Amino acid sequence: MTRVARLRAPRRPEDLLASPWRFAFAPGWLVYRPLVALRNIAYDWGWLPTCTVNAPVIAVGNLSAGGTGKTPFCAWLCQRLSQAGWKPAVLMRGYGGDGGPNDEAQLLAVPVVCDPDRVRGANTALGAGATCVVLDDGFQHRRLARNLDIVLIDALRPWGGGAVIPLGLLREGRSSLRRAGCLVVTRSDQVTPAALANLVATLQRWQVPVICAQHRPTGLVPLDGGGDRGEAQSPSTLAGKPVVLASGIGNPEGFTHTAQNLGWAIRDHLRYPDHHAYTDADIEHLAKAARLHQATLVVTAKDAIKLRHRGLDSTLVLEIALGFAPADEQVLWAAIVARLPAAGPPPD
């Protein structure tokens, strides 16, 4: 029997966490961590100023570098705000956009402003007609004042390797959660009930609402089909069938767990760095992997932005939406409404 070669994507920065070489970064950690702490103290004591804008600002962020589900959460939040009469705009730095909207911005169905200067970006959004601002990846961007900080915690890797960058993936220590007004545990359905219960008990020490969210697969659409919902098929159609996964996202383990829970026969998962710009060589690599394993290539919606019309025939895109238990969603929305103006959105 001929042995099928196992193809590999480039190593990701996160791979360093599993290597003893991570401790070579200890000197950098000894410098970076106190600088982060001093910066937070400066904001806490008012030594560094914050800027307010003439509209509510809700920040969505996390403690660790990498994907925790901020984009699907922002999509849910904007939908709820729109239903309540607000006109939300999402404000993001735009990392990986090469001067234009990045892949995450193109996944949202509301106005998006990409600007490293968050205050300027917020004013741009308000000048274009927005009545509230959702600050994506905004927990550490403290210069723009906000009404509420919602922090997402990934159940699969809640504490980012247990250390602040560069020794781990944490942007700041756990104590920073005291600034949060609400904590949302994402991918809560991808860990054991005991692990989830322990995590929730830990987060409840900060005495703010703790909400559990699930990443729910909603459909498979053809990569080059333009995302037409009429062509969507159930993710269960690939149950028991060979698939090759490809992703350039913050936490690829979540993609793997979702595929496993769907019963797909995963032959390989080619993992690229977050916001990866796929080259022609990468495209050839992905196509070869699918052929070698006689499998269907499946990518994330975020990666599909950069992979469409690149010759990857028969590739499918797994679409994901954030979901909550009804009681949890009510608690979350109540926490959000409590920080919005009592008068509600301004009239048109």
Structure description:
By secondary structure, this protein is α/β, with parallel strands linked by helices. It has 8 helices and 11 strands. It folds into 2 domains: about 20-215 and about 325-335, P-loop containing nucleotide triphosphate hydrolases (Rossmann fold), CATH 3.40.50.300; about 215-320, Rossmann fold, CATH 3.40.50. About 30% of the residues lie in helices and about 20% in strands. An 11-stranded mixed beta sheet has the order 3-2-4-1-5-6-7-11-10-8-9, with helices on both faces. The N and C termini lie far apart (about 70 Å).
Taking all residues together, what is the mean pLDDT?
A: 87
Q: Helix amount, in percent?
A: 25-40%
Structural category: alpha/beta
Shape: globular
User: Number of helical runs?
Assistant: 8
Number of strands: 11
Q: What is the level 1 CATH name of the largest domain?
A: Alpha Beta
What is the end-to-end distance?
70 Å
Number of domains: 2
State the order of secondary-structure elements, H for helix, E for strand.
HEHEEHEEEHEEHEHEHEH
Low-confidence stretches: 1-5, 95-99
Sheet bearing the most strands, described? 11 strands, mixed
How does CATH name the architecture of the largest domain?
3-Layer(aba) Sandwich
Rg (C-alpha, Å): 21 Å
What spatial order of strands do you see in the largest sheet?
3-2-4-1-5-6-7-11-10-8-9
CATH fold call of the largest domain: Rossmann fold
Strand content: 15-25%
CATH-assigned homologous superfamily of the largest domain: P-loop containing nucleotide triphosphate hydrolases
